[in-house]
Design brief:
This protein is an all-alpha fold. It contains ten helices and two strands. A two-stranded antiparallel sheet has the order 1-2. Helix 7 runs antiparallel to helix 8. The model has no long low-confidence stretch (mean pLDDT 86).
């Protein structure tokens, strides 16, 4: 549900023909969670509570799946960059990759929904009906504000002289990930590193396994079709970040120094996409 804003923003942007913005936004959402938000959570949690430890086995599974999903997403781009026989068939290969990613999501979802043994839950404060109504209203509001956001995006790109890739990678991605940005950092500050890391890394995984393939398949209904043939640098950054995220979370411990490095790396990535052609 936290990824609904990205879905609506992507669909409205596709309707306006902003394909490069949508591609960058999808990769940027994974980057924002895996690097920026995770880094901020490590910084805030580390400075407030010292080194924090979390369930490394669960985080390892999620980060490994995210890495495999990122590799799948990057394959059409690499086929195009290296001029393989698959190069002219970027759209068909993208559909195949989307179907595989969505299939993996459906098959792995039950395992992630199962409660961990010994896991403690706080008592519910809202009824199921109240929760459903609030989430429904939030989804409707997200759809409405996403349309406004996309309508204001194009003139902002020209006024600020930024590239469409930067707009998608940074501005759209951070706006669409506002829920994870706030919740992940808050949980780390409250010394709940397991919950914080789960919210952040699972969001990256959902974007790669569910949101991206759904948008690729839904784009077939639009005049502008979305493919996974990203600019080469965007595909390489996606792979680098997925590998880095797996290395960072696999030890099950976080420090504020790790967070500073992650945030700094995100700034470097963002700066690399500022200039347009």
């Amino acid at each position: 549900l936290g990824n609904l804003p990205e879905l609506f923003i992507a669909l409205f942007a596709l309707n306006k023909g902003l394909t490069s913005v949508v591609q960058a936004a999808l990769v940027g959402s994974i980057l924002a969670n895996s690097v920026l938000v995770l880094g901020l959570a490590f910084v805030v949690g580390g400075l407030r509570n010292g080194p924090q430890r979390f369930d490394s086995s669960r985080a390892r599974i999620v980060s490994t799946l995210t890495l495999l999903a990122a590799a799948t997403m990057a394959m059409p781009s690499l086929a195009h960059a290296f001029h393989t026989p698959a190069e002219p068939h970027g759209e068909a290969l993208s559909i195949v990759c989307a179907a595989v990613l969505l299939g993996v999501f459906v098959l792995t979802l039950p395992a992630f929904l199962a409660a961990t043994e010994g896991e403690e839950h706080e008592p519910a404060r809202w009824s199921a009906l109240t929760t459903g109504v609030v989430l429904g209203l939030a989804a409707a509001a997200a759809a409405l504000t996403s349309d406004w956001f996309v309508s204001a995006l194009t003139p902002a790109i020209h006024t600020l002289h930024m590239s469409e890739e930067f707009a998608g990678l940074v501005i759209v991605a951070i706006a669409g990930n506002a829920v994870e940005n706030v919740v992940g950092v808050q949980l780390a500050a409250r010394n709940k590193p397991d919950f914080a890391v789960s919210v952040i890394v699972n969001s990256s995984l959902q974007i790669a396994l569910a949101l991206t393939p759904v948008i690729v398949l839904l784009s077939l209904l639009f005049a502008t079709h979305l493919t996974l043939v990203f600019p080469t640098l965007l595909a390489l950054v996606l792979l680098i970040v997925a590998i880095l995220n797996a290395l960072i979370v696999n030890d099950g411990e976080s420090t504020w120094q790790e967070g500073v490095v992650l945030v700094g790396f995100y700034v470097v990535i963002a700066a690399s996409f500022w200039w347009g052609t």
